[in-house]
Amino acid sequence: MTAHDFTGRHVVITGASMGIGLAIAHAFAAAGADLTLMAENEAIHAAGAEVAAACGRPVRALKCDIADRAAVYAAIGALPAIDVLINNAGFQPMTPLSGATEASDAAFERCISVNVLGTYYVTRAALPLMTRGGRIIVTSSIWGRTGAAGFSGYAASKHAVAGFMRSLAMELGPLGITVNAVCPGWVETEGSMWTIRAEAAELGIPVPELVERYLGAQPIPGMMQPAAVAPAYLFLASDGAADITGQMLNVDRGSFIG
Question: Can 154 be counted among the known catalytic residues?
Answer without folding.
Answer: yes
